[in-house]
Amino acid sequence: MTELTLGRVTADRDRLLRLLQQYGVYAGVVVLLLANTVFTPHFLSAENFRTQAVQVAPVLIVALGMALAIGSEGVDLSVGSVMALSTSLISLYLGYGPWIAALAAVIGGIVVGCANGALIAFVGVQPIVATLALMVAGRGLALVLLPQLKDVRDPGMAALGSGDVLGVPYLVLIAAALALVVAFVVRRTTFGRQLLAIGDSRPAARLAGLPVRRVLIIVYVCSGALAAIAGVLATARLTASDPTSLGTLMELSAITAVVVGGTPLSGGRVRIGGTVAGAVLIQLLTTTLIKHDLPPSWTQIAQAVVIVLAVYAARERGKR
Amino acid sequence: MKPTALLRRTSARTLITAGLVTSLALVSGCAKSEDDTGKDKSGTQRGDSGQVVASPSAGSGETCDIAAFGGERTDLKNATVGFSQSEKEANPFRIAETESIKAEADKRGVKLLTANAQSQFSKQISDVQDLIAKGADLLVVAPLNSDGWEPVLQAASAKHIPIITVDRKINATACKDYVSFIGSDFVEQGKRAADQMIEATGGKGEVAILLGTAGNNVTTERTKGFEDRIEEKAPGLKVVFKQTGEFSREKGQSVTENLIQSNPGIAGIYAENDEMGLGAVNALKGAGKKAGDIKIVTVDGTRNAVQGIVDGWISGVVESNPRFGPLAFQTLDTFTKGGKVAQDIVIQDSAYTEDNAEADLGKAY
């Protein structure tokens, strides 16, 4: 009798944790939205939602690439430095016009991604170490290319940063489109399945004859390219190239969004919807504390609590 | 390994190598940045505006001379001066500071050795030790930290090498461990920013503060000066919002975006450095505000911020003068000849308002 109850309790607890991991982030977003509607003056305005969406867009785009890296049982610490590199490259190539400059920035991201992927796939370096190396090198290179902040006066860039279509800012449209593409790739393509299989167990994937190296390189190239796109958008929004501070701690924000969104660090699963919600959750959390003028240290503590909750839910489930 | 796999592997490697090489060539070969009109126009006036001592000059306050410090009189012209910079020359303040020291050494024909600690304190300690080992007779140090200087000070005082610290103080005994400190009074800067804010807003309404990096003495002192002066002189002004913009334009922008939505009635924004102030301007522009709707007061005096006054977006800028060269060398000169120098040399920072911004734009760094 007791054993039976105990079993049921464990099962209930298990189900609860599973629910928390899968839907907790959405519940969190809803709770924060409701709380802000009640307690924050002027929260329910189109202008405010626009601001929040614009602010979250670069983080979200970086998080999409991070989700792929984490899904392959890796991580990409170089994303913040790629953003800095991308902003430097824009400033360097803006003489050719905004499109060429943006292209140069994205190529920069792809090159860093290639280097990451090559180190991981061919040399066999742990992802955390390989991307740490590129994180340091990338920021250094960005500062060599552009030693200090430089204003961006190009009207095309400014339009990208502040323009909109029917009231929806370009930044938000681009982020949404990229999220849809990445979600499609993960769910519907062979590449997506291979990525998840590799994240689940690399030796098994290799034995099954999957092109492990190629997939890993593509994963880090995607992550680099997405971070570079985020760098382009952030530069356009700021109308300045600031390689010293752009993208600092971005890798942590992105990892937080992915983990809070229910993607396990152990690989083999990628939840793009959750990642989007995770990024939005962190944005809302920060913004709530700012709007109520609470000390900035509280934001960090609140974020930490959310991360611990998310990881706890994931870990408990993983143990079964 | 099967031949096909080998082939695939080789081709992937070749591809990556080729990609890396071409992109490196691309980066170095054909960069073409945006034309910088406007910057060079006023650039001819650069190097203007050395520092002026506010208080206390030699005579008032505690002084120091070579007899009290120990060592022998020398002529600055035959001496080697070592300069240790704390942070990378990646922001206008540090660039102007290093340039000013180098220019003054050139002007006086003094041999100068320089080092940059790249924001790593352990590197700064070894930088200074290196400078001493390379034969520096006198040192000018822009300290990264206030504490932890004992190893350097011991080495320097054993050789009777006079040290002058600029822009930040070190926790040690003046005239024993080092000679003098030359720098701005950050509390005073906050007070003068408050004066400008009171004038711009008429002393009524709600104001916000964009704080600098947490735990930084510049942040605490600029905040204290501002709040004290507001409380004392303009009880009608209320500080309703204090959030960090971490001294960066991007954070300044995103925090201000949130601020103007939650507090649409805000009358003024005090940004503790120019970069955050420029971020705030970005945010106001994005929200469809007009120049002058919300008064912005900042501290530093960089070219971009003073241009902001000319354009009408910024009401006032309190200067934090980085041009330590002339004053530092003058102090060293007096000291090495046996004269008295003040232990604490506080410089007189100027300020920019709509009255003088256009005329003095060339003085901004």
Automatic annotation (TrEMBL), chain A:
The keyword Cell division does not apply. InterPro entries: ABC_transp_permease (IPR001851). It comes from the Bacteria. One of its GO terms (molecular function) is transmembrane transporter activity. GO terms for cellular component: plasma membrane. The chain crosses the membrane at residues 23-43, 49-70, 100-121, 128-146, 166-186, 215-234, 296-314. PANTHER family: ABC TRANSPORTER PERMEASE PROTEIN YPHD-RELATED-RELATED, GALACTOFURANOSE TRANSPORTER PERMEASE PROTEIN YTFT. This is Sugar ABC transporter permease. The gene is rbsC.
TrEMBL record, chain B:
This is LacI family transcriptional regulator. Belongs to the bacterial solute-binding protein 2 family. PANTHER family: D-ALLOSE-BINDING PERIPLASMIC PROTEIN-RELATED, GALACTOFURANOSE-BINDING PROTEIN YTFQ. Residues 44-60 have a biased composition (Polar residues). Residues 89-331 form the Periplasmic binding protein domain. Residues 32-60 are annotated as: Disordered. Residues 32-43 have a biased composition (Basic and acidic residues). The keyword Cytoplasm does not apply. Its main location: other. It comes from Streptomyces minutiscleroticus. It is found in: Cell envelope. One of its GO terms (molecular function) is carbohydrate binding.
